[in-house]
Amino acid sequence: MIGRIIQTDACVAEGAAWLARAEPKFAQALALTGTLPLRRTPDGFDRLLSAIVSQQVSVASANAIWNRLDAAGMTDPARVAATSLDDLRGLGLSQQKARYAHALAAANIDYTALRTAPTDQVIATLTAVPGIGIWTAEIYAMFSLGRADVFAPGDLALQEAAKVLFDLPDRPKDKVMREMAQAWSPWRSVAARLLWAYYRVAKQRDGIR
Predict the structure, then answer these.
(1) Spatial separation of the C-alpha atoms in residues 202 and 33, rounded to whole Å
(2) CA nearest 21: which of 160, 183, 150?
(3) How far apart are the first and last CA of the chain?
(4) Alpha-carbon distance 109 to 25, whole Å?
(5) What are phi and psi of 75, to 5 degrees?
(6) Residue 14: inside a domain, yes or no?
(7) What is the pTM of this model?
(8) Do residues 34 and 68 touch, judged by C-beta distance below 8 A?
(9) Number of folded domains that form the chain
(10) 131 shares a domain with 64
């Protein structure tokens, strides 16, 4: 299933209104966050590389590293493939992420085909590449492909936002978050946008780039 594609701010607003009707806590959160961002990005190699850069580092660190890679022309798979691991490390990547960048450049993913592939197939295709886990694939499906009903339950900021918003005793782990998010279908990616926005209000820092 592909389902609804988020293309405009109006799509996000529609999803937010649905969530506010379905869950009073979301209505409370929206009153604090205001209008939710569209967060659509282009698809392709550079978006996946950017997601790899963002893994397990702060938003500020990820932005700084990405800016260096972008300035060096590392948004093109051929350039990345031709760049040594040491040179990639010199641009801010860890040894492991430099290897992941090479693996992604060598994967020859058909990015155009992914636009019309079922979400499960998108996740399977992307996670077959070393360095691309479920979180990265879900973020790509959510923002680069605009899938409206994708969630990222392993995201720590989403977990923390849910803990605060729903007054939970502990931060919900991946499995619990995935089960919670079932109730937010068919607008789970808008629920994610809302929780990230709420995290920013609650914690005074960004939870995602």
Answers:
(1) 10
(2) 183
(3) 27
(4) 40
(5) -95, 0
(6) yes
(7) 0.90
(8) no
(9) 2
(10) yes
Q: Is 5 helix (H, G, I), strand (E, B) or coil?
A: strand
**Predicted pLDDT at 56:** 82
pLDDT, position 118: 96
Q: How far is CA 121 from the centre of its chain?
A: 17
Is residue 4 in a domain?
A: no
d(CA 53, CA 66): 7
**Phi and psi angles of residue 185, each rounded to the nearest 5 degrees, phi first:** -70, 140
The tens digit of pLDDT for each residue in 129-176 reads 999 999 999 999 999 999 999 999 999 999 999 999 999 999 999 999
Q: What is the CA radius of gyration of the chain?
A: 17
Are 99 and 27 part of one and the same domain? no
C-alpha closest to that of 190 among 49, 50, 7, 60: 7
The range of the structural domain enclosing residue 35 comes to 9-39+149-203
